[in-house]
Amino acid sequence: MKYKLLKYVLLLTICISQFGCTEKVNKEIILLPDHFKGNAIIIYNQPNGIPDSIVNGVVIYKFPKNGILLCKGEQYIPNQMNNEYYYYNDKGLKKLPRYDDVKNDNNNSFIHNHQAGSYQKNDQTENFTFVAIGVGGNSWNEDFESYKIPDLIKKFKEGK
Q1: How much is the pLDDT for 93?
Q2: Residue 80 belongs to some domain of the structure
Q3: Edge to edge, what strands does the sheet with 27-33 contain?
Q4: How distant is the alpha carbon of residue 114 from its chain centre?
Q5: Where in the sequence is the domain holding 102, given as residue range(s)?
């Protein structure tokens, strides 16, 4: 009897360690192409997307120039106050401030918002989970329209 119980406990431990544990993400680092302005969109659960890059509980998202990032993995939900946003180029990184941290400077770029959501046209179509990150200066006023996600994915796959 003890042997059977030990066998089940061992089997349960192996199953949990192999399938039930995912790395806890407590922060996102968002890398945007230098001088990017507009909506940067992450679309999750895409078969042709890039695999997640997680290091020590930090997921790193590096956007291409078009601002659309298709990811194979699911969305993580860390505390957004821990997130960091950067412009990148060949020379390195430049930190982007959040809207609340910016002085009145029209030439400055900063993060306006970071919204998560999902879009599904109807019950017979795919459900898309996404994050939209608004980047711009004081004159920025562009809202993201989630119904455009299927067209964005199509354009991305066509290389546009």
Answers
A1: 93
A2: yes
A3: 54-55, 58-62, 27-33, 84-89, 92-96
A4: 10
A5: 23-157
